[in-house]
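User: Good morning. I'm curious how calcium ion would be positioned relative to this chain. Could you predict the structure with it bound?
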Amino acid sequence: MNADLDPLNRFSRTDGTTTESEDLSLCLLEEPPTITGACFFADGSCATMEQADCEAAGGQYVGDDAPCDPNPCTCCNLRGDMDNSEVRDVSDLTYYVDYMFGGGPAPVCEEEGDVDANTVLDVSDLTYLVDWLFGGGPDPVPCP
Ligand SMILES: [Ca+2]
Ligand SMILES: [Ca+2]
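Assistant: Good morning! Here's the predicted structure, ligand included:
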């Protein structure tokens, strides 16, 4: 084929050396790349899919190439870990007491402060934590 007549070859140099024209024609023939990301659903599940598919399925698209794990939508790792130290101990209790009654800072991750997972931070989370720490009560509810 005469390069001068090839519409895809308009970047050809007149000296006949290879140019980016070949790459260009390849691009025009290829499907656009599929971009996927983490898609979260109201039930807490996550799937990696295209944004349009995610939205069509009623999910919340986090972003291109966003991973499902770790979950970027939640900081929750360990409910009851008020100070986000990765362990639950009496210091979390004092942290929460200080928050509830002493004007102290809120739990670092609000979901982790919600020990009983009822979506409210209140004194019931405190009693749950006390019961777990000292009374042989049930474990804090696992994070979603
Ligand atoms: Ca802690
Ligand atoms: Ca709660």
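The pocket of calcium ion (ligand 1) is lined by residues 81, 83, 85, 87-88, 91-92 (CB under 6 Å). The domain at 75-139 is CATH 1.10.1330.10 (Type 1 dockerin domain).
Let me know if you'd like a different ligand tried.
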